[in-house]
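Q: Sequence in, structure out?
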Amino acid sequence: MGDLSVLRERLEGYEQVVVAFSGGADSAFLAWTAHEALGPERVLAVTAVSPSLAGFERDDCAALAHEWDLQWLEVATDELADAAYRANDIDRCAHCKTALMDVLEPVATRRRATVVLGVNLDDLGDHRPGQAVAAGRGAAFPLVEARFTKDDVRAASRRLGLRTWDKPAAACLASRVPYGTPVTLSVLREVEAAETGLRALGFTELRVRHYGELARIEVPLAELDRVVARRSEVVAAVQAAGYRYATLDLEGLRSGNLNPAT
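A: Exactly. Output:
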């Protein structure tokens, strides 16, 4: 079980930290705890903005930074300029983390800070080649060191009154594209538009997996009936994003289900 006192102790061991801040439950919890442990002058939350980050996620990062009085910085990354990233092989996340560390390292160097990521114990069991890249370039994983799982992060966040405790997981938009299908700006725009349209219908936990003209919609099993009940609106939202066909995955929402088995 995650130990908040150990987490604070680990963070206090750094002179300064730069938190890779996506606004999700993990990075938000890490940023808030670092802010409380080290003080506002020793913590900088940095959000990498690129076409793979949904616009509403960027906006929530800004809102959280304001609400919690975090020092916050936006930096642009351009993963799509990397042919290896666009090719979308099973190491796509490694290319993405390389782009992230390329922009975080200079910021951290100027501040004599350590880059910290919101990786938790459960993440270690998934296919996450980007973690090795980040660790190899000096990034630290304080949540792992303090033995936090995903559930631990949410439970601790709830006890602390953080509104992110139940925020739905939202991986980068490129994770909606099956390996081997090229990642392009137009593909990411289609995915984002489809998911935005479905959120407007009240579906907060979802993924739209991209298969050319076909969008495969994943929602929690408890939501399947509601999608079917609003079939016409769902189809219209997906087609408005540029897809021809809308399908519903009867297995429900599974984070990382396009990853190879580990």
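DSSP finds eleven helices and seven strands in the chain.
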